[in-house]
Write a structure and sequence with these properties.
About 70% of the residues lie in helices and about 0% in strands. The chain is mainly α and about 100 residues long.
């Protein structure tokens, strides 16, 4: 199945819209973060990236999310939402903000 056919199939689904894509992306991002950090406290994986990295990620992901919303492309909305939620979790839990 090619991407164009998949997009047409998904657009016909009642549950596949921009609002549900934000929720699915956020849940996916939080789930990814939880799985990737599970059991890592003993390894003390500290993130050495500067806060500017997270700020740029938020700007870029928010652009993708909003552009996807304008184009009515839930997949782009979900990707932007996922990136935002992963970086929000990093900021909250690893940088202590």
């Amino acid at each position: 199945m090619n991407l164009e056919k998949l997009q047409k199939t998904m657009k016909g689904q009642w549950w596949w819209n921009e609002k549900s894509a934000v929720a699915m992306g956020a849940l996916g991002g939080v789930g990814f973060y939880a799985l990737s950090e599970h059991g890592q406290k003993e390894h003390n994986r500290s993130y050495t990236a500067s806060p500017m990295t997270d700020a740029l990620a938020f700007v870029g992901a928010t652009y993708v999310l909003l552009r996807g919303w304008q184009l009515q492309e839930p997949l782009l909305v979900a990707i932007g939402s996922t990136i935002n939620s992963i970086h929000a979790m990093q900021v909250v839990f690893n940088k202590g903000w």
